[in-house]
Amino acid sequence: SLRQSTVTELPFFASKVRLGKNGVEEVLGLGQLTQFEKDG
Fold first, then answer.
1. What is the pLDDT of residue 12?
2. How many other CB atoms sit within 10 Å of the CB of residue 17?
């Protein structure tokens, strides 16, 4: 989901979300980064 976010310093960010009857119920965050992502 591309949405307003506080996950990063960017105002909008694509994040995994849990959807319910009324839309987004939970933003799941970034999860674990790989070593490649950490080095980037």
1. 81
2. 15
Q: Give the CA-trace dihedral at 34, 6, 1, 39, to 10 degrees.
A: -20
Torsion angle of the four alpha carbons 26, 2, 15, 35, in this order, in degrees rounded to the nearest 10: -170
**Cβ atoms of residues 28 and 15 within 8 Å:** yes
Q: Which residues are CB-contacts of 28 (< 8 A; sequence separation ≥ 6)? A: 15, 16, 17, 18
Number of domains in the chain: 1
> Is the confidence at residue 6, as pLDDT, over 80?
no
Residue 4 in tokens: 């307003």
